[in-house]
Fold:
Amino acid sequence: MILFLMSAFFSGTETALMSLNRYKLKHLSKKNKGAKLAMQLLQKPDRLIGVILIGNNLVNILITQLATYLGFRLGGSAGVAIATGLLTLALLVFAEVTPKTIAALRSEQIALPASYIYVVMLKFAYPLVWVINIIANTVVRLVGVDPNVTDNQSLSPEELKTVVNEASGLIPENHQDMLMRVLDMESTTVEDIMIPRTDISGIDLADDWNDIEEQILRSNFTRLLMYRGSINNIVGFLHLRRILPLFHEGKMDRERFENLISPAHFTPEGVPLTQQLINFQDERRRMSLVVDEYGDIQGLVTLEDILEEIVGQFSTSPANFDYEAKVNEDGSIWIEGAMHIRDINRQLNMELPTDGAKTINGLVTEELGQIPTPGTSILINDYPMEIRKTQNNVIKTLILYPRINDHKRTEETE
Structure:
C-alpha cells in the first residue's frame, strides 16, 4: 500500500507541476513560498523530470518485484501471470489514471506542497540526476533538439484576447471591453478613427477680420484649426483660452491673433493608435493632422478620439447616436454616409468589412465603382442598403436593412 501511495504521489505531482499556469504561478510566488519553489523547479524541467522519474521508476520496480515474488510463492508460474495482470490494472487505476486526473483538476493544491519535497529530493539525488540528464540531453541533441532552448512563454495579442475572453466571469464586462479595445489598438491606425477632411472645421485667415471674429465667438470648439486659403495650407492651431481675455479687453487684432497660433503637428495615416498615443504624451499635444504619403491632409485625430477607442463614447446624450444612426420600427436603420464602419459594427453589432474604406460612404462607393445616385440599392455582406441622399458627390444618408441570412433564420425559427 505504501509503495502504491508513493507511485501515485510521483505520477500525480508530475502532472500537477506540469499543469500549473506559469503566469498565475509567477503571481503567487510573490506571497507563497511553495509557488516560488515550484517556479524554480520548472525553470529547470529536465532536472525536475529526472528526479520524478527516478523516484517513480524505483517504486514501480519494487512493486513489480514484490508482486512477482508473491505470485510465484502462491501459485508458481500461473501465479506470476495472474499477479502481473492484476498489478498492471492496479497500477493503471491507482497509481496513474486516478492520481493524474485529480492532479490535473487540483494542480495548485497538489503541486505547491509537493515542491517542498522535490527541492529536498533534488539536493540529495542531484549527482544521479546530473548523470542521467547528461545522457538524456545527448540523445535529445542527436534528434536535432536543443535541450537548453525552451518555448517562448510570452503571449501574443490574439492569445491575450483569448485569456481576457475566458476570464469573463472574473472581470467586469466594461473592464473586459476596455482591455479588448486596448489590445485592438495596435492593429488600428489613426486613419481608422480620424475625423475626415470633409468634416474638419477651421478658420480661413484669408477671410475678413470681422468674419473671423464672428466665427471665433460662435465656435463650439476650444481648439481651432487655422489655414490660409486652402485646408492644405495649414497655419496651426489656436486655443480659445489664449485669445478670450484679449477679446474681453478689446485688445484683439489680426496681428496679435496670428502671433498666438501654435504650429500644427502632422502624423502619417498608417501610424498605430498605440504609437500615436505615445506621441501625444511625449509631445504634450492633444490633436494632430493626418496626412497621406504625398503630404495632403486626410483628416484630424485627437487625444479624445483615441481615449474613446478604449473607454467608449464620452457623451451620454442619446441625441449624438440618433443623429448618426436611427433605428426604425421595421428594423431598418438610417445612417449618415460619413459614419465610420467600425462605429457601425460596434454600435449596431454588424459585420461590415473594415479592411478597405473607413466610412460607409466610401464602402458603398468602392463597391459600386461610381458615385451613387439617390434610390440606388446595393448588397454588401448580405446587408441590403439603399442610398437616400447625396450631396457634392458623397452619400449623405442611406438606409441599411437587416442582414438577409439573419432575417431568414428568424422566419424559420418562427
